[in-house]
Structure formats: C-alpha cells, structure tokens
Amino acid sequence: MFSQQIPSKIYPAVLRGLILLCLVPVNTGAREQKFANFRQAVEADPQQVSPNLRLIRVFSSADDVKPSHPILDRTLDIIAGPADPVTRVDVLRSPSAVVTDSNHRIFVADPGAKTVHVFDFIRSKYSRLDVHGEHPGAPIALAVDGQDNLYVVEQTGRTVVVYDAAGKFQRQLGKLQGGESYFDTPAGIAIDKSTGRIFVSDRQGHRVFIMDQRGKLIRKLGSRGAGRRPGEFRFPTQVVVTGSELFVLDSGNTRIQVLDTGGTFLRTIPLGYADARTGLAVDNEGRAYVSDPALNQIQVFAHGGQMLYTFDPKTTKEEAFNRPSLMWVDPGDCLYVVDSQNNRVGAFQIKGENSTK
Fold first, then answer.
1. 176 is in which domain, residue-wise?
2. Stated pTM of the model
3. How confident is the model over 89-122, as pLDDT tens digits?
4. E strand or H helix at 130, and its extent?
5. Share of the chain above pLDDT 70, in %
6. Is 255 a domain residue?
7. pLDDT of residue 306
8. Residue 249 counted as domain residue
9. DSSP string across 159-226
10. How many domains does the chain fold into?
11. How far apart are CA 250 and CA 215, in angstroms?
C-alpha cells in the first residue's frame, strides 16, 4: 500500500492530532474544489523562466504538500513539545524519475531512500510506496498505464514491478526461469496507453524491449553489440511514447531516435551531448525536452527536430535549479524536472508559443 509517515513519538502526535481536530474545521469537499486543478491553484504568482515556461512550484518533502499553519504549529510545540529529531523518510534523497497519474498524483522514484514518494497536492496528502512493509529496492524509472497502474523499474533485481492504483503489488515483468532477467541494466520505461504495450530501454544491452501488458516479449529493437545505424542503439537510456511515436534517447550515439510504436525507424534528432544523467520528455505537440546537467540547461526541439529554444532553470527567481536531469510532461502540459543537485522536483507550465510541428 501507499504508507503514511509514522511519527517517532506516539503521544505528542496524538495530542497534536486532537488539537488540530478542535482548531481546524474539516471541509474535504471545499478543499478538493479549491484544488480541483493543481496548475490553476498555484498560477496566481507564476515566476517567469522563459517566454515559454512558467515555474509553478518546487517540492522536496512531505512538508511541501501539507498546508502550513505557522502560528498553530508554534502553539502545538508549546503544548506538546517539539518533535524529537529523527531520520526523515519523507524527504527526497536522490530523485531519479518522476511521473503523474490521472488523479494528478506525482510519483518520484528515489533509489537513495529505496522508495517511491507520492505527492498529492489536490488532497494535501503525502505517502510512500510500501508493499507489506518492504521497500521496492532501488527504483530508477517510472511509468503509468491507462488504469493508473504504476510500473517501477527496479535496478537491483533488474525487473519491472507493477502496482495497482492503490499501491498493491500486482506482478513482476522481465523475470525468466532460474531468476534471470530479460534485461542487463534496465534504464527507462514508457507505456503506450492505447495498446498497453510496454517499452523498456536496456542500457548495457543496447536494446529496447517491447512487451505486452502481461510482460510477454513482443520484439527486441537493436542488438546486444550496439550500433550506429538507424534502429540501432548505443547505451539507450530514456524512452517516451507520444501518440503513435516512440522516442529513444540513444545516449551513446548522442541522438534521439524516433520510431513508430511497432519499432520502425522514422527520424533522428541530433544532440550535442548525452549521458546516463540526461533526461528526455515529450509534450502533446511532439516537442522534445532534453536536459543537460553539466551545462545546467534544457534544450527544446520541435517535432521535426529543429531547435526551438534553450533555457537555464537556475535563472528562476529565488529557486535556482542545478543539474536538471530526468523529466516528465503530463497531459496538461506541465513539465516536471528533477533538480539532481538539490534533491527536489520543479514543475513548469508549458505555454502555447512555438507549438508548430
């Protein structure tokens, strides 16, 4: 299940809860109505990053989800005493991937904390992926299907672990008899929601695997020996499905290869640089967003591969970003960027300019 954080001292927590119930009226319906649209709720004072992006919010822990009551919090500290210092498990330690579902929940893979954090700003809730008290190993990549099932690439076991929308374990994909795996080093995952097909990039294997919903292998793209020709890969990392197209970040060949979802090569977008830390996201217009942690910038390409613009996230007022890495674009054109140096995630609203394919 998605487990909530448990305070270290029960008595102060219970006392704080009772005081909150007395002092703060509960009106769940009004709160959900107020936050019915996450982006509209926080766009009252957007910060300008470029003519095409606006900062919505930055978050790094459960504290960013919960409503802030400074005076009330101080009152509780006086009555119940300050909470004892503990090792926080609800803080991002080394975020590696981000994805959203249809309920506007934000999932962040965190191999450093050995968990997947779940941020629900609409309902002011935070939770963690927890299955019968066990951590999901080292999660490094995420995807969500049309039923809001969550797919977690687990690096230690070299598998894809599937959980339902409530966080209940469903199955593992990629396991062979004898405990072996399809994958050498799975790095990225994407799902075609129209067909349910699953795409997993295998960095060391230089291939992309196509599987059905149950994990049955349909096709392997590329070859184990790597290659530079169209349809071949060298250290592929990220994969993204948009419409009928599959975008593959072919890091070793410093390019993005675009194929149809059946695996047929369509075109190439050349890049100046790419490595294992480079992120890839694609929006509803087919624009590709490529992060460069070393140069601290994100490049944006048109659907046909033409460069549209470059921006530096660290120029964001009072929210300097450093080393942007993995990214995700939700259906509402909100770009989520992992700030790998500061261990947080930033959300940017994509504006409508430069939408020509």
1. 2-181+277-350
2. 0.82
3. 899 999 999 999 999 999 999 999 999 999 999 9
4. none
5. 75
6. no
7. 96
8. no
9. EEEEE-TTS-EEEEESB-GGG-BS-SSEEEEEE-TTT--EEEEETTTTEEEEE-TT--EEEEEE-TT-
10. 1
11. 23
